[in-house]
Amino acid sequence: MRNLVLFMHISLDGMVARTDGAMDWIKVSNELFEYANARTQVADTALYGRRTFEMMDAYWPTAADGPNPSKHDIEHATWYNNTLKYVVSENAAGQNTDKIKFISDDVKARISDLKKQEGSEIIMFGSPGLARYLMQEGLIDEFWLFINPIVLGAGVPLFPNAEIKLKLEKSTTFADGVLGVHYIKE
Q1: CB neighbour class for 101 (10 Å; exposed up to 12, middle 13-18, buried from 19)
Q2: Are 110 and 103 in contact (CB under 8 A)?
């Protein structure tokens, strides 16, 4: 059974974006990029909600092609272009390619089946609405959360109104004050 791993930046009060969707409060650094790259390389499949996929797909396929791309851009673009991507979207059926597959119905069963297929981890970036749904269905196995040192007070919450018991596996404090925590579902 493959693990479904959620990879997400959150505020100290559990928000993933401001009320207007802005994520300008998220701290990123080369140290965090290195850490994230090591985790990303373990996964051979990515899972996205439609909006997050559209943001990712607008940048990553050609991120390494520009003048003076960063090490992170080169590494993540290479991973992104070689990774099978599943996109949960109600209105995107029929647009499948060899590296992009759309899931538009029976999401719980399709994700459960995906987890049973051969391969390594399935990593999910962003997609808070999809993440909340998958948490409620008990389908997320690991949480890699990057807790930014800010309280937003309001915004887009990560967690659903459901109890989820977790066990801390590892924590890492980054120089910019971000706390990386790795939890597994009990």
Answers
A1: middle
A2: yes
CA distances from 5 to 88, 92, 145, 148, 184 (A): 16, 23, 10, 19, 9
What order of strands is seen across the sheet that includes strand 166-173? 100-103, 84-88, 43-49, 121-125, 4-11, 142-148, 179-185, 166-173
Q: What is the DSSP letter of 62?
A: G
Under a CB-based contact definition with an 8 Å cutoff, are residues 97 and 83 in contact?
no
Averaged pLDDT, groups of 10, the chain, 186 residues long: 96 97 94 89 94 92 92 93 94 80 94 96 94 96 97 96 94 96 96
Half-sphere CA count of 72, side-chain side, radius 13 A? 12
The DSSP annotation for 77-127 comes to HHHHHHSEEEEE-TT-TT---SSEEEE-S-HHHHHHHHHHSSSSEEEEES-
For the chain, which domains are there?
A: 4-185 (3.40.430.10)
Give the tokens for residue 124: 């999910």
Residues listed for the chain: 186
* Torsion angles phi and psi, residue 25, rounded to 5: -90, -10
Q: Which of 26, 64, 59, 17 is nearest to 146 (CA)?
A: 26
